[in-house]
Design a protein that fits this description.
This is Transposase. This protein is of the alpha+beta class and 166 residues long. The protein contains six helices and four strands, in the order H-H-H-H-H-E-E-E-H-E. It has a four-stranded mixed beta sheet, with helices on one face.
Length: 166
């Protein structure tokens, strides 16, 4: 078999990109180096890591530094604008959500709940086996009766509200 490979010039397939087995060790080293009051940049940290015996490229160091220095924002987008809107409209806003509940017998129930944003209290909820457009509109009217300041309705992009079902 080895002779055939020599004759036809076949080479072993490469295993692909080598795994960075010491990623978390390097990550911790970079995190510690970023705490250095001298304010080291990516090039200096890269050279220090090479002196410590790590095999890593400058672009990988930059990517890890970006990941460490990036502020955590689980919601993405412009969170401050959303929080500003909610803080100004919280006394008039009510959020609604439709949840599916599986019973022990295999039936599916739908729970529609309304929560007042300002107080974070559930102001209305109801359960049905098959939500219809009329049923949801009736529940919205009942929630409006229970919360006199209700002007803004916040809902998610549930398929049930897309117009196909409700």
């Amino acid at each position: 078999m080895a002779k055939l490979k020599q004759i036809f010039g076949l080479k072993k397939k490469s295993k692909g990109r080598s795994k960075l087995s010491k990623y978390w060790e390097i990550y911790d080293q970079i995190k510690d180096m970023l705490k250095n009051p001298a304010g080291w940049g990516a090039e200096r940290i890269h050279s220090e890591l090479l002196l410590l015996g790590f095999s890593i490229s400058l672009s990988s160091v930059k990517r890890i530094m970006k990941r460490i220095l990036k502020p955590y924002n689980p919601f993405g987008g412009n969170w401050n604008a959303w929080m500003n809107f909610i803080s100004q409209m919280k006394e008039f806003a009510v959020a609604m959500d439709l949840c599916r509940i599986q019973t022990a017998y295999g039936d599916t129930l739908f729970l529609l709940a309304f929560i007042q944003i300002e107080t974070r209290k559930i102001i209305h909820s109801n359960i049905t086996l098959a939500p219809t457009r009329d049923w949801v509109l009736r529940q919205i009217q009942e929630a409006k009766e229970l919360c006199p300041d209700f002007e803004i309705l916040i809902r998610d992009n549930d398929m049930l509200f897309s117009g196909r079902k409700i």
